[in-house]
Amino acid sequence: MSLFEDTYLTIETPAEGIFRDKGSKFIAYAYPFKDENKLKDIIAELKALHPKARHHCWAYRLSPDRTVFRVNDDGEPSGTAGRPILNALLSKDITNILVVVVRYFGGTLLGVPGLINAYKTATQEALANSIIVEKTVNDVYQIDFEYLAMNDVMRIIKDENITVLNQEFDNACTMTVEMRKMQVNSFVMKIEKVDGVRINYIRTL
To answer: Are strands 97-104 and 55-61 parallel, antiparallel or unpaired?
Structure first.
């Protein structure tokens, strides 16, 4: 048994959920999410879609590590929006996900418990409407080697059933490969035995 999990739950496609309370409407949008740089574009799209909404609160999780997240209350009282959204994600153990909850104010204050419940419930509705899938945690590595080592490298890649993302073959060859985290030790041990091969970690997907 591995010391770490190399699978996680996420959503396959975007989904929505709605919750209403005392005239206020909370619309939750859930997105598969791996790139923090896309956050601003998604928020901007939703603000354009809902220009009269009072708040656009959000939370996201990245990676199976439960400490990798960000939350934003967007003007709601601290801890009443982003954190309840995050807690709904944590309770379902879903990651690589962004949820933005758009709020239309109905004229009646809901109070702190009411807000916490509204943001949590809207998020839960979006998750209930989502297709949840299990994916593997994959690491990407770059392998550099001389052309003469090609056969040895390719044999190991085939034996270990490693995915090749791209490759450049010349006198000096470069390949970018992707593998499940639990395959890494075995693969690296074998590849490093081949003369003149260098392998470098790039990122985790």
So the answer is: antiparallel
Asked: is 7-134 a CATH 3.30.230.30 domain? The reply is yes
- Extents of the domains making up the chain: 7-134, 138-204
d(CA 197, CA 174): 10
pLDDT, tens digit, 9 for 90 and up, residues 130-147: 999 999 999 999 999 999
User: Which tokens hold the place of 15?
Assistant: 């989904």
The four Cα atoms 135, 136, 137, 142 give a dihedral, to 10 degrees, of -120
Spatial separation of the C-alpha atoms in residues 192 and 42, rounded to whole Å = 42
Let me know if 56 is exposed, middle or buried by CB neighbors in 10 A (0-12, 13-18, 19+). Answer: buried
CB 82 within 8 A of CB 61: no
Structure-model confidence comparison of residues 89 and 5, the more confident one: 89
> 138-204 adopts what CATH topology?
Alpha-Beta Plaits (3.30.70)
